[in-house]
Amino acid sequence: MELRQGTDDALERLDELSHVVEALVFGADEPVHAERVAEVYAEIRGVSRPSVDEVETAVTVLNQAYEASGHSIRVFKWAEGFRMATIPEVAPFLKAFLDSRKSRKLSRSLLETLAVVAYRQPVTKPEVDFVRGVDSDYALRKLMELDMIDVVGRSDAVGRPLLYGTTTTFLEKFGLDRLDTLPNLREVEDLLSDPAFNHEKARLLLRESLFDVQPEDQKEESAMSPEGVTAAGLEPGEAVHESDTDGASSANGDGRNGAS
Question: Strands 162-166 and 123-124, how do they pair?
Fold first, then answer.
């Protein structure tokens, strides 16, 4: 009888914890860490803090309930925390509803600079310049303004230049849990050489050329050096960028479709 009572209590606690996770993740405007969920639960209930494993189990139970009832939302683990978002299957509907063409996007040069920082961090500006083949001062400043990268220290090299690394905002915007979940360069090369990928890319480019008209001040101006593009994981001669030295173009930020 006591064993049955203990099991019932554990299930009741798990069910309540699932509701708490759902409420906190729904109400937050940033990823909620498991430790924070446990802290809030313990504070309100006046009991010992649930373990991280208990919180993650509660998330699993919550997602199973969403799936069983046919809901289009799930609780995903992003930036080492939990975030509520829609499932990939409904992304096309969201894009049509929100008109993604009006959403703010990162320019090509900002994406290239961000890729170099993400894969080589901690990295200095001279190292970023060497990989891209152009001065990256403007791109680095804009990425810092967007909170995608930040200064993480100083190099031991002569002059002790600043070291740059990505932020939790970068993880959140790209739907990543940790940096080690980034695709490695071999996976990127395999993707770029996939005929299906090239077909889809061509289709999207055609659609943009038919329906999208970029403002004059957002058009890309000059081609990157082939070696810089290749090092950043892109095809030679494919990427273009705005003038980094004079900051002629305005930077755009990108978010993940479906986030609440």
Answer: antiparallel
